[in-house]
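Researcher: Go.
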Amino acid sequence: MKKIFVLLLLCSACNWNVDYFNKSYEIGQELKSNIGASMIYVDEGVYNKPNNIIAKGSRIELVYSGREGNVIKVMYREYFYRLGALYIKDGFTQNLQYNLSDGNEIVFQNKKFRVIEANNQFIRFIVLE
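Model: Structure:
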């Protein structure tokens, strides 16, 4: 019985699950994304050390979709993590359009960007917020 108690005591101190946060950008950083590629993403969740996976959590992502005249197109997507696998959330995709005639700064939720160059191959931008 003592051996089981000691093992349980040791395991409870292991801290196998830790909070996880990762983002693909820094404020002020200039980035370039090809059409269809992620502009930025943010992962949050719980990381499970023994299995080396994100056990549960979420990802938000902006994907560059191209340019039509002065309008750039960006897709917003949300995902969720379950036992290391990433799944798209149904109903959490949004197609966004920004008219660059109104200026080269665009905002979505709490993210702000300055567009340097955009065409139907890539976008170059700076993350402002």
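Model: The beta strands are 17-23, 30-34, 38-48, 53-68, 71-82, 85-99, 105-108, 111-118, 122-127.
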